[in-house]
Design a protein that fits this description.
alpha/beta; seven-stranded parallel β-sheet; 25 helices; elongated
């Protein structure tokens, strides 16, 4: 075994060589050492704590690759791009790739020099991945957003339960589970679900020394919002619950001379990218956004995060508030609360758990919309536009989304974030009819032949294709290939979906008759109870008037600390009260001293003040008060004496 100093030097050398840092943040090196020793490790690291380095550094120190499981495609791409810029070979598998592209990535992981493979959890169950994974030299499995595996977590995702199957494929490989927010119950569940050999938790403190937590109870949130933004310089984020409100509040700020923009999931990709870029560069000062904004945002100088609407959990609040002050400088996290917020939260809770029959109705309409028959559809994927679905099926969008989320939690489907989707093709004619078409339309025969030779399953499903690859194999330009596809489409030979950006809907099970769709009542009630606990926790935080807000958060996440932050509104109020008490005691001491000196003989103000070692203004103030209280009087000679 290497001496500790040698290991430390090796870790620092790797950190410096690839990332340019001279030292680790607190707990980072402890986590890395644990992983290097082959121990399953749960790392609790607040947002912005440098989680990615805890699996990247140990991977660069040894042979083999690291499989990183993460649910967010945008973060996958961001991490892969960053690693490649550092000269490190990294790849990702997600729903935006064709089967051929996935095949190439997996081959490179088996035979090439790929060091990091990023995958979504639902990929683990595919036969293609499992076959290749068994042949990979996997040195580490990193699970990002690990709280998603726990039913007690605020963002439970059933697809995460499949991660444990990676342990069957890589039985001797340690697991590093990473999360920014896990209560003790969630942490215990994570280690159980990921089959840890032994419990092993490494914690970074949830305290943020530079962040001031503030709660403001008000019936005029707009006035408070404007006051805060006008009094705190620098850029910030204002979180709201709805898309409509993000636009309304942004307009309010603009009308009051504040440079502001809005951001929500209903905007197009290019529009969101432009808004995000302008805000990061400081071209707009304030971003008013739904919780669709923030994941992966790399802006260190955010001076304030204001929650105009209350979150559904303290975990979500802590993560979003934590986007302020990542540069270590003073920043503010402000929560605005009004009297009707509790009733609104209760209404939302009722909406989030609709009657089971209503969920079954959405299930039935979804499969009718997708044109999938009973007994079919397992593992099929679709580009999915929620607004088109709800409009055509005459559903209320928020209620439909909630039903889809519950169906996802029960293992029927997966609805991904928006991503780049490859073009997809499906033949809609019979094979015999296709043969006759190829004979009569010789100009289309060549491209049809290339498709049939290169891609399987074209007669039963939409198959992702690589237009560059088809162009290469056919000898045509890509633009000509697309024109031929459009001709085939117009002739009703194929259905052609051009490349696009949209969420993907993946069916994990075949379609069932509506009456057979089972939403487990015990699971349903449990999710309701957990949701209620989360809402209660955020309101306890908001209504607390006595305990340091940072300590409330730390204790919620199981951190045993008794040192108040000294910066939150509660701590400042305590300090103000203490100062007032100290001032009162000082005043009493001065008055006692004045009365004692006057108890023997009348004295002038100058004689009274002599040798008291107190500022003359303070003495005059207390003398005036004693005269007003008629405890002392001034005689005809101008001397002060006790009023007997």
């Amino acid at each position: 075994m290497q001496p500790l100093d040698d290991i430390h030097a090796e870790l620092l050398g790797t950190l410096k060589r690839y990332w340019g840092y001279d030292s680790f943040r607190p707990v980072q090196e402890e986590i890395i050492r644990s992983v290097c020793q082959g121990r399953d490790t749960l790392a609790l690291m607040p947002t912005g704590g440098g989680k990615s380095l805890t699996y990247q550094v140990p991977t660069m120190l040894r042979e083999g690759l690291c499989i990183v499981v993460t649910p967010l495609i945008a973060l996958m791409k961001d991490q892969v791009d960053r690693l490649r810029r550092l000269g490190i070979n990294a790849a990702a598998i997600h729903s935006g790739l064709s089967m051929r592209q996935i095949d190439i990535v997996l081959d490179n992981c088996v035979y090439g020099d790929v060091k990091f493979l990023y995958i979504a959890p639902e990929r683990i169950d595919s036969e293609m991945f499992r076959t290749r994974c068994a042949r990979m030299n996997v040195s580490l499995i990193a699970v990002d957003e690990a709280h998603c595996i726990s039913q007690w977590g605020y963002d439970f995702r059933p697809s995460y339960l499949q991660i444990a199957r990676l342990r069957e494929l890589c039985p001797d490989t340690p697991v590093l589970a990473l999360t920014a927010s896990a209560t003790p119950k969630v942490a215990e569940d994570i280690m159980y679900r990921l089959r840890f050999a032994k419990p092993n938790i490494k914690r970074m403190s949830f305290a943020r020394q530079n962040l001031s937590y503030v709660v403001r109870h008000t019936e005029d949130k707009r006035e408070h919002l404007l006051r805060i933004i006008n009094n705190v310089p620098g850029s910030g984020i204002v979180y709201v619950r709805t898309r409509e409100k993000s636009e309304t509040i942004a307009k309010l700020l603009q009308e009051n001379g504040i440079s502001a923009d809005f951001y929500h999931g209903g905007l197009g990709f290019l529009s969101r990218s432009l808004k995000q870029e302008q805000w990061i560069k400081g071209q707009s000062r304030v971003m008013v956004a739904t919780n669709a904004f923030g994941m992966g945002i790399d802006k260190a100088d955010v001076r304030f995060v204001i929650h105009y609407d209350i979150c559904d959990s303290l975990e979500a609040y802590y993560q979003e508030a934590g986007r302020a002050g990542r540069d270590g400088k003073s920043a503010y996290a402000v929560l605005l609360v009004s009297g009707d917020d509790p009733s609104r939260a209760s209404q939302r809770l009722q909406l989030e758990f609709p009657p089971i029959d209503a969920i079954r109705t959405v299930y039935e309409k979804l499969f009718n919309y997708l044109q999938v028959a009973i007994g079919e559809g397992k593992h099929r994927s679709f580009s999915f536009n929620i607004h088109d679905f709800t409009s055509r099926m005459k559903l209320y969008s928020p209620a439909a989304l909630i039903a889809l989320k519950i169906l996802q939690q029960n293992g029927y489907l997966i609805l991904t974030d928006e991503t780049d989707n490859p073009p997809r093709i499906r033949f809609i004619v019979q094979r015999d009819d296709l043969y006759r078409i190829r004979v009569t339309r010789r100009e289309l025969d060549h491209i049809i032949t290339v498709l049939l030779r290169q891609y399987a399953g074209l007669f039963s499903d939409f198959v992702p294709i690589d237009e560059q690859e088809v162009a290469h194999l056919s000898g045509y330009q890509v633009e000509h290939v697309r024109e031929l596809f459009k001709q085939l489409w117009q002739l009703h030979i194929i259905r052609y979906i051009p490349s696009n950006r949209s969420p993907m809907l993946i069916l994990t099970e075949e379609r069932l008759p509506e009456e057979d769709v089972r939403i487990a009542p015990e699971s349903y009630r449990l999710r309701q109870e957990i949701a209620r606990e989360h809402i209660d926790a955020i309101f306890r935080y908001a209504n607390n008037q006595t305990e340091c807000r940072s300590l409330v958060i730390q204790h919620y996440f199981g951190e045993q600390s008794s040192v108040p932050c000294g910066r939150c509104d509660i701590c400042l109020e305590h300090r103000k009260h203490q100062n007032a008490t100290q001032l009162s005691n000082t005043q009493k001491q001065i008055r006692t001293q004045l009365l004692e000196r006057l108890s023997n003989n009348p004295l002038t103000v100058k004689q009274l003040a002599d040798r008291m070692f107190v500022p003359i203004d303070t003495i005059l103030k207390e003398i005036t008060a004693l005269i007003q209280e008629q405890k002392i009087i001034e005689d005809k000679g101008g001397k002060l004496q006790i009023n007997r």
